[in-house]
Design brief:
This protein is α+β, with helices and mostly antiparallel strands and 792 residues long. The chain has five domains: 7-125, Alpha-Beta Complex (DNA primase, PRIM domain), CATH 3.90.920; 141-299, 2-Layer Sandwich (Alpha-Beta Plaits); 310-466, no CATH class; 492-669, DNA ligase/mRNA capping enzyme (D-amino Acid Aminotransferase, Chain A, domain 1); 673-786, Nucleic acid-binding proteins (OB fold (Dihydrolipoamide Acetyltransferase, E2P), Beta Barrel), CATH 2.40.50.140. The chain has 13 helices and 45 strands. Helix 1 runs antiparallel to helix 2.
């Protein structure tokens, strides 16, 4: 079923009709309505814990939030329409001055998903709850909204937040900071419920006024905008019984899908940044909910509560089984892998698993997949399995759940023709050439029949292939060299340190200093493209050698295009001058994603590495560099001794998560670097009188471009001339951002924010500026919209 059509999902025993799942709600990031619903499904346990029994006001963006240049207005909804509200949604009627309004109570996951289906991106709640008879209870928390005025920013908010904490600690009130997903910070303090909203409001007002008196240059308690310049408003008024604030874990209707996220106090440093839904879910899985200290113990949510792998974990003891038992919650993705495992448990059966929403949806098939359309086989649905199980082979000890030998019978990718939760799945499987399916595509329907009255029982049916199905696996030709290759996106590494390595097994590779590129080889011809789709094939003609080295194979590889100095180190400056003075490019291949009809995305890193090394790619310009081993200390020492940029740490059992920044790849740098967007330049003086003195730099922040300082070193005369020529073509009359200090803006020439460069620097200042930056060069392989602050 196409995503734009209406379909139904079951949530908490309720059927919810969802529509237009492919509608883009956040154009800047391509985030769809389906992504929004998926986020709210995964964050529901924590969202509900903090929002339940609180009347919910909704801000709806029916057609998306628009862009920074053309934002769209939201519809602010308080009153529910009884005709369109499901009868299972808990509601409360509240009297206002002129009329009564009916509000939803987000007491369960189903209600939250129903609101998300209505494009309610933001959900706001008061600081009090509804009692069992529908009346106001006294507030159970106080909120202080720290809102920076013009000329102030997050650094000033952090300073004020710590001042607030000192006072709140003195009042013996436990407090939790929440980055609002917008400009400021919300502070929540837990209350005992003995005081009215009016009394709490008076306390909050006195609190703000006291801090203003002590710190008049930093804090303001007056709501008037004309007195807030350069200071932080402590908005105490949101404690009024008639007011609301954005709920913890709610999305924000800004140009980027940032979230209102509870934080630890030690996170409030100069490196603080707003978080995306994916980052929020990852931190909930790893550190839990910092705001749970304000909840009663029976309201708190464990890190894995309602996680789709909770049941899987409960059935396994990681100390006793070789099976993967990940602690982290699964994160939904777009993968379509499958695996069929031959399982010699108490009775032989075949485990049939399809990747869906970050897990392997699984059935046990006693007789195995049918090979005749005239036969139907029983398929018993089992618990969801982690994606890591897709590469698992081994012996589960007797006495453990599923004890016996597990072997992969076939594996690969599938095309989903239909997926109706709890009803029917139709998929075309494309397995391995030597797999149990015979190397040919196979189409199966799995239908929920509940045979014998057992809800776990499904029926598996082999379907006849349509001509289009068989062609999808092999292209339009039987020739391997004519095969159409799948399009893969590069997996990204997270910024990390040695402290992040934990107890997992890692392998360390050189961090190359060049342009990341995916290579596709078919018919003896190679093409290379950057992460943002830029075609590098003609730019670096010497890398055509890859096609001849892999002649007879079809392959997709991942690597880095670099220029080498006389000591064999990658030199980014030389790559900038490719083609001048005999400089040549080299392609350092470090991963194998696809080979001769088989996707290797779900294959562990160690196996992909063996496959890559077996190809013996050793040419004049094509190389498979050796790893730096599995000892972190030794690898980092070698990297520093050789004056390399750093290392990339990769877990040996990690799968390739295309298009994602994952914790199974860590980028550990020897020096700090930052991608930047050039937004302007200042004319030089003295020896630079006729050229550029410095470049004005920015990165993307929560409210658009954020100024991060200027760079005036690291250039040579040739680069200065090239940069000036490039930027003169991009001139504009006004700056593309608002927060450039007056001294830096004086005499500046403004340009369109379309060019990405890179600098080295010492550290971030408390005002979020680059300290001692030096220019490294342009980054034509990067998109401006992807440039954000890197803290590593």
């Amino acid at each position: 079923m196409a995503k734009s059509e209406q379909t139904a999902i079951e949530v908490g025993g309720h059927e919810i009709k969802v529509t237009n799942l492919d509608k883009v709600m956040y154009p800047e990031t391509g985030t769809t309505k389906g992504d929004v619903i998926d986020y709210y499904r995964q964050v529901a346990p924590w969202f509900v814990a903090h929002a339940s029994r609180r009347p919910a006001t909704r801000k709806r963006w029916v057609n998306g939030v628009g862009t920074a240049d053309e934002p769209r207005d939201a519809f602010f909804h308080k009153n529910l329409d009884p005709a369109s509200t499901p009868d299972w949604v808990a509601t409360v009627s509240l009297e206002h001055r002129h009329r009564a309004s009916t509000y939803p109570l987000v007491d369960d996951e189903a209600t939250l998903i129903w609101l998300a289906q209505l494009a309610s991106l933001e959900i706001h709640v008061p600081q009090w709850k509804v009692g069992p008879r529908g009346g106001h209870q006294n507030p159970d928390r106080m909120i202080l909204d720290l809102d920076p005025g013009e000329g102030a920013g997050i650094a000033e908010c952090i300073e004020v937040a710590h001042l607030c904490k000192e006072l709140l600690d003195g009042m013996k009130l436990t407090s939790v900071p929440v980055t609002s997903g917008s400009k400021g910070i919300h502070l929540y303090a837990g209350l005992d419920g003995k005081h009215t909203a009016a009394q709490v409001t008076e306390v909050a007002k006195a609190f703000a006024e006291a801090l203003e008196k002590e710190h008049p240059d930093l804090v303001v308690s007056n709501m008037r905008k004309d007195v807030r310049g350069g200071r932080v408003l402590i908005d105490w008024s949101e404690n009024n019984g008639n007011k609301t604030a954005v709920a913890p874990y709610s999305l924000r209707g800004r140009d980027h899908p940032y979230v209102a996220v509870p934080r630890e106090w030690n996170e409030l440093t100069a490196s603080l940044e707003q978080l995306t839904p994916t980052q929020v879910l990852e931190r909930l899985a790893s550190i839990g909910d910092p705001m749970q200290v304000l909840l009663d113990k029976d309201e708190r949510v464990s890190r894995t509560a309602k996680d789709r792998l909770t049941k899987y974990r409960s059935m396994r003891d990681q100390a006793k089984t070789p099976e993967p038992v990940p602690e982290a919650s699964p994160v939904a993705g777009e993968g379509h892998s499958f695996v069929i495992q031959e399982h010699h448990a108490s009775r032989l059966h075949y485990d049939f698993r399809l990747e869906r929403d970050g897990v392997l949806v699984s059935w046990a098939v006693p007789k195995g997949p049918p090979d005749d359309p005239k036969e139907n086989h029983l398929a018993v649905m089992t618990e969801d399995h982690p994606l890591e199980y897709g590469s698992f082979e081994g012996t589960i000890p007797q006495g453990q759940y599923g004890g016996g030998e597990v072997k992969i019978w076939d594996a690969g990718t599938y095309e989903c023709e239909k997926w109706r939760d709890d009803k029917e799945v139709i998929a075309v499987l494309h397995g391995r050439p030597d797999g149990g399916l015979g190397g040919e595509p196979a189409k199966f329907a799995i239908i929920h029949t509940k045979m014998g009255g057992d809800d776990k029982n499904w029926l598996m049916h082999r379907m006849e292939l349509e001509p289009a199905d068989s062609q999808a696996a092999t292209g339009t030709s039987d020739s391997t060299t004519d095969q159409k290759l799948p399009r893969f996106e590069a997996m990204l590494a997270s910024v990390g340190s040695v402290d992040d390595l934990g107890t997992r097994d890692w392998v360390f590779e050189t961090k190359w200093d060049g342009y990341r590129a995916i290579a596709e080889v078919t018919g003896g011809q190679a093409s290379l493209r950057s992460r943002n789709g830029k075609d590098f094939t003609r730019t670096y003609p010497e890398l055509a050698e890859l096609g001849s080295l892999l002649d007879g194979h079809t392959a997709v590889l991942d690597g880095e295009i670099v220029a080498l100095d006389e000591d064999g180190r990658s030199n980014f400056g030389s790559l900038q001058n490719h083609g001048a003075g005999g400089s040549k490019a080299h392609y350092m291949v470090f991963d194998l994603l696809y080979l001769d009809g088989e996707s290797l995305l779900r294959t562990p890193y160690s196996e992909r590495r063996k496959g890559l090394e077996a190809l013996t790619l050793d040419g004049e310009y094509i190389h498979v560099p050796v790893t730096l081993g599995s000892d972190a200390e030794a690898a980092l020492k070698v990297s520093k001794d050789l004056k390399l940029e750093g290392v990339i740490a990769k877990t040996i059992d990690g799968v390739y998560q295309q298009g994602k920044r994952a914790g199974t790849w860590l980028k550990i740098k020897n020096q700090r670097m930052q991608e930047v967007i050039v937004v302007g330049w200042k004319p030089g003086a003295g020896s630079r009188a006729n050229t550029i003195g410095s470049l004005l730099l920015a990165v993307n922040g929560d409210d658009g471009l954020t100024y991060v300082g200027r760079v005036g070193t690291g250039f040579n005369a040739k680069q200065l001339a090239e940069i000036k020529k490039r930027l003169e073509r991009l001139e504009r009359k006004t700056p593309a951002l608002d927060d450039v200090p007056r001294a830096d803006a004086k005499d500046a020439k403004w340009v369109r924010p379309s060019e990405v460069g890179e600098v080295t620097f010492g550290e971030w200042t408390v005002t979020d500026r680059l300290r001692h930056p030096a220019w490294r060069g342009w980054r034509p392989d990067k998109n401006p919209q992807d440039v954000v602050r890197e803290d590593g």
